Amino acid sequence: MRAVWLSISVAALGWGTSGVATRAALAEGGSPYEIATFRSLIGAVAVVGFLVVRRMKIPRGGPALKTGMIMGVSNLAMPFLLSNIALQYASAGFLGLMTALIPLLTAVLAHFMLPAERLTMVKTAGLLVALSGVAVLLLSGDSGLAEGGRPVLAGSLGLLAALGIAYGGTYAKIHAGEYEPLHVTGIHFTSGAAIIAVAALIAEGPPAGQTAEGWALVAYMGIFCTFMPFVIFYRLLRRVSATYASMVGYVVPLVAVIAGVVLLDERLQPGIVFGGLLIFAGVVLTHRAEQRVVVVPAEAVPEELISGPEG
User: Fold this and answer.
1) Using one digit for the tens of pLDDT, what is the confidence trace for 196-232?
2) Can you give the pTM of this predicted structure?
3) d(Cα 198, Cα 230) in Å, to the nearest integer?
4) What gap in Å lies between CA 172 and CA 77, rounded to an integer?
5) Of the candidates 147, 148, 94, which has an alpha carbon nearest to the alpha carbon of residue 268?
6) How far apart are CA 205 and CA 285, in angstroms?
7) CA distance 273 to 105
8) C-alpha distance from residue 207 to each of 22, 203, 279 (Å)
C-alpha cells in the first residue's frame, strides 16, 4: 500500500506542478504557444518511445485512430493551449482548481452521451455546489496574482479546457473495448502535439527561443508533468481499482495551490480559498455517488482514466 500512495503522490506532483512550471517558463520569455508546442512534442516522443520499448505498434485506422485523434484535440491541444494562455492572467492554484471540475463535467456529458450513466439527485447537487464555487472564484476578483490578474478570462479558459478533457474522456468511454488503450494514447499524444505545433506556427511563426532556464522548465514539463505521470498512473491502474486511483485528482489542485504559493509567491486569496472549498465539496459529493466496490481490471479501464487528470 505504501508503494501505491507513493505512486499517487508522484503522479499528483507531476500534474500539480505543471501550472507552476508554465508560469515560470512564461516569466523566462516563453510564449504560451511555444511552451505548449515543445512540452507536447517532448511528451509525444517519450510516449512513442515507451510504446516501442513495449513493442506496441500504433494502428493506422479503425476506432483507435478516430478516438486517438479526438483525444489529441480535446485532451491535449485544447487544455495545453487554453491553460497556458490562462496562466498569464491567474495563478497556478487558480487554474488547478479548474481541473477539479473535470469529473463533474464528465458526469454531465455522460448523462447525455451514455444512457447508463444518468445524473442523480446527489450528482446534480454536487454539480450545483461546485458551480457555486466557480462563481465565487470568477466574481471575487481574486486571481492569485499580485497584479495583472483577470480571473473571469482565466476561469473561462480553464473551464473550456476542462470541458474538452471531459468530452474526450466521455467519447473514449463510449468506444471502450474497441481498442487497446495504449494504442490510443500514442495517437492521442502525437496528433495533439502536431495540432499544437501547427497552431503555434500560424499564431506566432517560428519559435523565438528563450533562456536556458526556460528550456529546462519545458523539458521538465514534457517529462515530469506529461509523460511520467501517465506511465505511473497506468501502472497504478494495474494494481488498484479505478476509483482508488482517481484520488490523484483530489491531490493535483492542492499541489498546484501549495507549489504556487511556495515557489512563485502566488497569493492564497479569500476568493480562491472559499471557491476552492465549494468546488472540492461538490466533487466529493459527486464522487461518493459514483463509488463502486468492484475492482476494475486494467484491460477494462477506458482511455480517459489512463490519460489522468490533465489528459
Assistant:
1) 999 999 999 988 777 899 999 999 999 999 988 877 8
2) 0.86
3) 24
4) 16
5) 94
6) 46
7) 21
8) 16, 11, 37
Distance CA(310)–CA(233), nearest Å, equals 12
Are the C-beta atoms of residues 157 and 94 closer than 8 Å to each other?
A: no
Cβ atoms of 222 and 43 closer than 8 Å: yes
HSE-CB at 193 with a 13 A cutoff on CA atoms is 20
User: Which residue type is seen at 227?
Assistant: F
Q: Which three cell numbers stand for residue 200?
A: 503555434
Residues in the chain: 311
Contacts of 261 (CB under 8 A, 6+ apart): 93, 267, 268
Q: What are the φ and ψ backbone dihedral angles of 131, each rounded to 5 degrees?
A: -65, -30
Round to whole Å and give the CA distance between 98 and 125: 18
Count the neighbouring beta carbons within 10 Å of the beta carbon of residue 270: 10
* C-alpha 141, offset from chain centre: 24
pLDDT at 134: 93
CA-CA distance, 79 to 166, in Å (whole number)? 11
Cα separation of 71 and 51, whole Å? Answer: 18
Integer Cα distance of 99 and 169 in angstroms? 14
Query: Rounded to an integer, what is the distance from CA 92 to the centroid of its chain?
Result: 13
Cα 227 to Cα 20: distance, rounded to the nearest angstrom: 17
Instruction: Compute the distance between CA of residue 138 and CA of residue 278 in angstroms, rounded to an integer.
Output: 13
Q: How far apart are CA 150 and CA 265, in angstroms?
A: 18
Summarize pLDDT for 76-124 with one digit per residue, the tens. Answer: 999 999 999 999 999 999 999 998 888 888 888 888 988 878 888 888 9
